[in-house]
Amino acid sequence: MYERKVLPNLNCGLDLIGEVLYGKWKIRLLWFINQGHQRPSELQRKIPDATRRVLNIQLKELEDHDLITKKIYPVVPPKVEYSLTEFGQTLMPVIATLGNWGDTHEAHLRSVILKRLNAERE
Amino acid sequence: MYERKVLPNLNCGLDLIGEVLYGKWKIRLLWFINQGHQRPSELQRKIPDATRRVLNIQLKELEDHDLITKKIYPVVPPKVEYSLTEFGQTLMPVIATLGNWGDTHEAHLRSVILKRLNAERE
DNA sequence: TCGGATAGGGATAAACTTTTCCCCTATTGC
DNA sequence: GCAATAGGGGAAAAGTTTATCCCTATCCGA
């Protein structure tokens, strides 16, 4: 496991939420688990751009941060189900707020993001 | 300027907001600018852990994404002031929501984050 | 018996971000 | 002439995250 050399800032609420939500696929993972897609293979089909490896790593972090729980069924072939903890559920309205803002301003956001991307390749 | 090799996902609102808020100091920058700390040197005093270089880079990105504007006064010594655009202002309640969740769950968050950090160094 | 479904992990490479180091502009005041 | 002020940026190193590749194992169906 990679060991951090620089300690994170944990001064205020914004630092703290940043620390647990940080990771390319984490918000999506929480969102899909909340929608009832609980098994790893299902999540991977929902997020095809991520490799299985990264999803496992980020699921583990979410679990360590008490946002989801992992239930392993001792059957063959293996079966695993993730679900939100109570704590994780309190985060859903916050994620909804983020998504709503993005949806509301979708056209403008897409425009400014693409403009900047293209400028990079000038 | 660094040129990305992997294009970002821009499928949904969550992707879009992630794209503009991504950056270690951006949320803090927006927050302090909103509170009236508009000059670069002032922002740097408020965020002493960041170097001036990074702040400049991230301020530029915020500007490119139409969240803030930069006004340069042609005086000596130079004077620069940042302020939120109208668009940037719509983001403030969203950031407040993030901060509130973090503040509400501060104790628990700090606990799970530190537990994971220590486990890394096991 | 082979292929695919289930789940997982180590090692290493590539991508990306942030920091560090050193440099620059121009004027005012001593 | 030189320091202080208030702003900025290029290049390279360090830090961190994500991707790629190749393994483990069992069972089911063709």
Automatic annotation (TrEMBL), chains A, B:
Keywords: DNA-binding, Transcription, Transcription regulation. It comes from the Bacteria. PROSITE patterns: HTH_HXLR. Residues 12-110 form the HTH hxlR-type domain. PANTHER family: TRANSCRIPTIONAL REGULATOR, TRANSCRIPTIONAL REGULATOR, MARR FAMILY. This is Winged helix-turn-helix transcriptional regulator.
